[in-house]
Design brief:
The protein is α/β, with parallel strands linked by helices and 153 residues long. Helix 3 packs antiparallel against helix 5. It has a four-stranded parallel sheet. The radius of gyration is 16 Å and the shape is globular. The protein has a single domain, classed as P-loop containing nucleotide triphosphate hydrolases (Rossmann fold). Strand 3 and strand 4 form a beta hairpin. Helix content is 52%, strand content 15%. It is built from seven helices and six strands; from the N terminus they run E-H-E-H-H-E-E-H-H-E-E-H-H.
């Protein structure tokens, strides 16, 4: 069975994934995979380097890239599509029993089960502040994610 953990920033997707801890299931954390891609030479990092002004000291600056993507839906979805095509779709197709933590809702149909984690807006804001996220960025994140529920049937 292929299980997707979906939810807004700060709702506890990783905590939920750890609670599931199903024996025999491979667990993939989207954030970890994406962060590792930024550190090496590959189709994703090459795409980012060629498209976005976010290189500092020869490395992809995730904060700068995040600010760019939060402001531009087309660029964000294009990068999500590339990540899905090149990285996640092959993993999902190859693995029989898998839990993927941090799935973008518009890709939920690739899974047998989709668990949507939810906490109220105030709790999400509190958790993001606890991670050191600035108020302006919290508002941007929440604005980008405000319609995610429409992808879930």
């Amino acid at each position: 069975m292929k299980i997707a953990i979906v939810g807004y920033a700060g709702v506890g997707k990783t905590t939920l994934t750890k609670m599931l801890n199903i024996t025999g299931y491979k667990v993939v954390h989207v954030d970890e995979v994406v962060n590792s891609l930024y550190e090496s030479e590959n189709i994703i990092s090459n795409h980012i380097r060629s498209r976005f002004p976010c290189i500092v000291d020869g490395k992809i600056d995730k904060k700068i890239l995040g600010n760019i993507l939060l402001k531009n839906k087309y660029e964000r979805e294009e990068l999500e599509d590339l990540l899905h095509k090149e990285i996640f779709h092959p993993i999902i197709c190859r693995e029989e029993n898998i839990i993927v933590d941090g799935v973008v809702p518009r890709f939920a149909d690739y899974f047998d089960v989709c668990l949507f984690a939810y906490v109220n807006k105030e709790e999400r804001q509190k958790r993001l502040r606890g991670r050191g996220v600035q108020e302006k960025r919290i508002k941007q994140i929440m604005n980008v994610q405000k319609d995610w529920h429409k992808y879930l049937k």
